[in-house]
Amino acid sequence: MKTIGKFLQSLISPAPIAPEIIRAKAYEMWKAQGGGDINPDANWQAALEQLQSAEKLSRRSFFLELIRLIIASLSTGATIFGGSILFLNFSQGENRLITERFTRSIEQLGNKEETIRIGGIYALERIAKDSPRDGWTIMEVLSSFVRGKQNIKGQDPAQLFAIQTDAQAALTAIARRKIDLENERQYLDLSFTNLREANLVAAQLDRVKLNNASLIKADLRQANLNFANLSHANLHDANLTQTRLDRSNLIQANLSNTNLSAANLNEANLNKADLSDAILDGAILTNTSLGNTNLSGAILIGANLRGATLSKANLTKADLSGADLAGVNLEGANLNKADFRKTKNLEIVQIKQALNWELGIYDPAIDLLLKAEPPLKPEGRGNS
Predict the structure, then answer these.
(1) Which parts of the chain span the membrane according to its record (predicted)?
(2) Could you give the CA distance from residue 335 to residue 332 in angstroms, rounded to a whole number?
(3) Comparing C-alpha atoms, which of 181, 163, 161, 184 is closest to residue 172?
């Protein structure tokens, strides 16, 4: 068994990489960067690290496959036992390397130099990919890093500047994580953080806690924010085009002047949110809660609002032309100068539950019906 073990270990021992191979890789990286006056050999260290990483993965795959073949071909208990021990020893060695890499990366996060901190962030992201079981712990570490750098508790919102470079790097790593490996009960915490002007395009942020966060002018196009907590968050002037916000919590969030075109807000809670002058054309708002919401000046052209609740919402000068309003609750909503032309499935009884419905803008056919129908009788009075 010792002989077999030594033989297998010799097969996976790292061999030095020839300088010619490293130089060729460095030249390839230099060309990918567009060439220029920079010496191709400047990429020597980066090329060496890439080659070593690729060789390590290749050796691991080869070793594990070799163990499987040995165990499959030899049926004696001793051989199986010996192969299993060899496998465990190899796995323990790998775990030790992961731990060492993790420790070094954590130390880098506390460095005074920003470039070293960013290097530590990307090293942690690499570990999360190499060792999925450590992925969640690493994402929590990166979230804690962002909270520490960008905390806004007790700060004047007017004094908040764009997100810092190293915090953006950590946020990017979080946004690229594989959410299919996580437990549904796990929530990353980015609450009370300044993420102003953050680049979060196509970010995976479902179930993330972003309550009370500042996301002013943030780019969240095509991001996944399903089930996210954005209550009291400030998303003024942010771009959420085609963003998924299914069942998200946006209670009292500031979404004024925000672009939510073609966003999915199915069953989201936007009660008491500020959506003044927001763009929601083509948005999905089915069964969405919009009670006491400020939608003054909002554009909801062609939006799907089937089953939504807009009770006591402010729809002053809102444009709902072409929207689907089947089953929408407009009780107590302010329809002053709201545009309902070409809407679908809008009924007279819905309109007359609202306030200032007489001042709304309707198709001629609806307008005639509204004027033809007698006013609703006050409750508690019979026919005279």
Answers:
(1) 66-88
(2) 9
(3) 163
CA-based R_g, the chain, Å: 30
The answer for residues whose C-beta is within 8 angstroms of residue 127's C-beta and 6 or more apart is 98, 101, 102, 105, 134, 138
Q: What is the dihedral of CA 300, 305, 311, 314, to 10 degrees?
A: 0
Note the pLDDT tens digit of each residue in 215-244.
999 999 999 999 999 999 999 999 999 999
CB 270 within 8 A of CB 288: yes
Domains of the chain: 2-109 (no CATH), 275-379 (2.160.20.80)
User: The tokens of 288 are what?
Assistant: 């969405």
HEC sequence for 111-167: CCCHHHHHHHHHHHHHHHHHCHHHHHHHHHHHHHHHHHHHECCCCCHHHCCCCCHHH
Report the alpha-carbon distance of residue 105 to residue 100 in Å, rounded. Answer: 9
CB 279 within 8 A of CB 263: no
From CA 74, how far away is CA 63, in angstroms rounded?
Answer: 17
Residue with tokens 């060695």: 93
Rounded Cα distance, 258 and 278, in Å: 5
Distant-in-sequence, close-in-space partners of 265: CB < 8 Å, separation ≥ 6 = 245, 246, 248, 250, 283, 284, 285, 288
